Amino acid sequence: MPVIVASDLDRTLIYSAAALALTMPDARAPRLLCVEVHESKPLSFMTETAAQLLTDLGDAAVFVPTTTRTRKQYQRINLPGPAPTYAICANGGHLLVDGVSDRDWHAQVLARLADECAPLAEVQEHLLRTADPVWVRKHRVADDLFAYLVVERELLREEWVKELAVWAENRGWTVSLQGRKIYAVPKPLTKSAAMREVARRTGADLTLAAGDSLLDADLLLAADQGWRPGHGELADADWTAPAIRALPERGVLAGERILREFLRAVRSPR
């Protein structure tokens, strides 16, 4: 029976230069592989060791990249190893099959959002009206499913984020602060639902997951086993659950450790 490995990407398996957390002496820093280029500039990295581990994982399990990124943002990433048959984008809003969004899945998602939460336009209007231009750099809508702001963290008023979370909660939405981005996402829009659909289609008898943010919590809880790194929203909140292992590593070395844990679990007798 196949094993599904559904992993978040940014700050879980791949890292921007600002998120690498290379705290060791320069001469002892790991060799890095660039896995994303944007506007002709290197943007995301993993260690060369992690790249080999991911290649091995792709040969041993059904690896499912699972991201809040839009389809366009995801397709900039060039991961090592076999091309994944399935990928989850837009926090579960799109299930890619061989790189193409599954229309039936997307239609199901849209119907559920219409039934269970406030419309995107209402949330977008609230963000535009209440966010302070002093610390907002960009307003964005992702695949017509959710909204996010790019902000200057040092200027961001934390109380505003808390107030936004309460406002959103009452309308069926959730808020997540990740690096320089504040996400407002409909609660029914989940990575876990899409992972379960992949498990159904593949007949998997074991699901593994990893992630660092509050938007990954549902994914981790839905998996048979899960891991989180020593950085990110979940680590900051000291979040855990019975089947979740909190790892001490931070930054790009956490990505390497997570891949080792995935491989160990895939190869263990069941």
Short structural summary:
The protein has 270 residues and is of the alpha/beta class. The protein has 9 helices and 14 strands. It has a 5-stranded parallel beta sheet with strand order 4-1-12-13-14, sandwiched between helices. Strands 8-9-11-10 form a 4-stranded antiparallel beta sheet.
Description:
The protein is α/β, with parallel strands linked by helices. The chain has two domains: 3-110 and 189-267, Rossmann fold; 118-186, Hypothetical Protein Ta0175, Chain: A, domain 2. It has helices at 48-60, 71-74, 103-116, 120-130, 158-169, 191-202, 217-222, 233-236, 252-267, and strands spanning 3-7, 32-38, 41-47, 62-65, 86-89, 94-97, 100-101, 136-142, 146-151, 173-178, 181-186, 206-210, 225-228, 244-246. The strands form four sheets. It has a five-stranded parallel β-sheet with strand order 4-1-12-13-14, sandwiched between helices. It has a four-stranded antiparallel β-sheet with strand order 8-9-11-10. A three-stranded antiparallel β-sheet has the order 5-6-7, with helices on one face. The radius of gyration is 18 Å and the shape is globular. The protein starts with a strand and ends with a helix. The model has no long low-confidence stretch (mean pLDDT 96). This is HAD family hydrolase.
